[in-house]
Amino acid sequence: MRRALEWAERAGAAGEVPIGAIVVRDGEVLGEGANQPIGCRDPTAHAEIVALRAAARQVGNYRLTGATVYVTIEPCTMCAGALIHARVDTLVFGAREPRAGAVVSTASVMDNAGLNHRITIIEGVLADESGHLLKTFFRTRRDPAPLG
């Protein structure tokens, strides 16, 4: 999760919402990334999607069975769906996202009885650090320091 936080910090420094993600299997990092929808002009370039894409390229398969995804903030609906389709085994996330989090906050996308794949969910890992990074980013955006 610390590595995901580093990616989140990079995203924030680039003016993106500070969220980072990594995909790990058997102790090996398969993919990692940060939020970059602004820079990439791509609404799907969330940290989780960027990391999943890199991992899929690395292993040569879109199915990432046996993998764990670490992400600093609770995934949105799109990212939760991508994790399911990638057949990720475990999702570990830091802070909840009360507005758009689709794992436990606003929805339980992964608990749909019709799904043919289940993901183990672990939440709250480095939640304070993850939440602080996000809150600080948005506070700075709302109340920029005065010039001069």
What does this structure look like?
The protein starts with a helix and ends in a 6-residue tail after the last helix. It has a five-stranded mixed sheet. The radius of gyration is 15 Å and the shape is globular. The mean pLDDT is 94. With 148 residues, it is α/β, with parallel strands linked by helices. The chain contains five helices and five strands. Helix 1 packs parallel to helix 5.
In short:
This protein has 148 residues and is of the alpha/beta class. The chain has five helices and five strands, in the order H-E-E-H-H-E-H-E-E-H.
Rounded average pLDDT: 94
Secondary structural class: alpha/beta
Order of helices and strands: HEEHHEHEEH
* Overall 3D form: globular
Beta-strand content: 15-25%
Q: How many β strands by DSSP? A: 5
Low-confidence stretches: none
Question: Topology, pairings included?
Answer:
Layout (H helix, E strand, L loop, with lengths): L1 H12 L6 E6 L2 E7 L2 H4 L6 H13 L8 E6 L3 H9 L4 E6 L24 E4 L3 H16 L6
Parallel strand pairs: 3-4, 4-5
Antiparallel strand pairs: 1-2, 1-3
Helix pairs in contact: 1-5
